[in-house]
Amino acid sequence: MIRKMLFVLLLGIITVTIILFMKQPEPAKTITIGEYDALAHIDVTLEELNIGISNSPDDKIHVQMQGHKLKKHMLTLNEENNRFVMKEQQRKKNWKENIRFHSLPTIIVQLPKSQSKSLTLKGAYGDVTIEDLALDTVQVETSAGMAYLKNLSISNAELHTNDGNVTIAKSAIEDLNITSSAGDVAMKESTGSAHTIQTVEGQIKMTEAIEQSNLHVKSVSGDIDIHYQKAPISLQFITEGEDIEVTLPKYDKKTHMIGDGTNMLSAKTKYGGIMIK
């Protein structure tokens, strides 16, 4: 009798699951949250929602939400001490909400390029995309969400993540500090004067890298891979690792330098490999 009941229950679960998967997915929707006066400083705190931040078409801050099952009350927006403050509303969820067939909604924020000065973003599980902006300072902190930065001009940026990956592309960041526990870090065609990247288990990969004054990359167990867009002309190397390979032209293995060594590259890993070319 018990086996029969278990079989019927299992058959019911399988049937419901098949019906749900066979349903045609609803198209994503976009709703407008609001239009706001520009403020120099932006503070964002999110738990699960994704966010995309880009350039505004005018001198206003525009906020939209895109995805499925959209509700404006998911967010609160306030102006506090010349800061535009955005927070995801914390609420109790029933067990049905943990069963998802779509990704969580994405908050779309457009900032006036000439008036926005600083961005502070604290997230947990949602992904972060920031592109096409010029800012003085950027601070991003996430637990498991991915961070993607593209076409940015920033004086100072600090990115901290536990398990999420960090990707930076075609950006000019003068002072950059990235720390990660298990997430990978990838950079492409990006410049700056002082960059420090540290991971515990994550890999560090830089493609089409450009020679700069101070570059420090360090991983405990992840590999470090640096591919220069053009061969450096004056670079000093400090490397530590079990497997190190430098194939750059004019690299002197005795002095660990190219040219006069005006600029510095420090690449260290305890258990991973290092490839520089």
In short:
With 277 residues, the protein is mostly beta strands. The chain contains one helix and 22 strands. Helix content is 8%, strand content 52%.
End-to-end CA span: 69 Å
**Overall pLDDT level:** 88
Radius of gyration, in Å, reads 23 Å
The biggest sheet, with number of strands, parallel, antiparallel or mixed sense and barrel status, is:
22 strands, mixed
Instruction: List SSEs in N-to-C order.
Output: HEEEEEEEEEEEEEEEEEEEEEE
Helix content: under 10%
Low-pLDDT runs of 5+ residues are 95-101
**Helix count, DSSP H or I runs of 4 or more residues:** 1
Characterization of the model:
With 277 residues, this protein is mainly beta. The protein starts with a helix and ends with a strand. Helices cover 8% and strands 52% of the residues. The chain has a 22-stranded mixed β-sheet that branches. It contains one helix and 22 strands.
Keywords:
8% helix; 277 residues; mainly beta; 22-stranded mixed sheet
Give the topology:
Elements: H1 2-22, E1 29-37, E2 41-45, E3 50-55, E4 60-67, E5 75-80, E6 83-88, E7 106-111, E8 118-122, E9 128-142, E10 147-161, E11 166-169, E12 172-180, E13 185-188, E14 194-199, E15 204-209, E16 214-219, E17 224-228, E18 235-240, E19 243-246, E20 257-258, E21 263-269, E22 273-276
Parallel strand pairs: 2-6, 2-8, 3-7, 3-9, 8-9, 9-10, 10-11, 10-12, 11-13, 12-14, 13-15, 14-16, 15-17, 16-21, 17-22, 18-21, 19-22
Antiparallel strand pairs: 1-4, 4-7, 5-6, 18-20
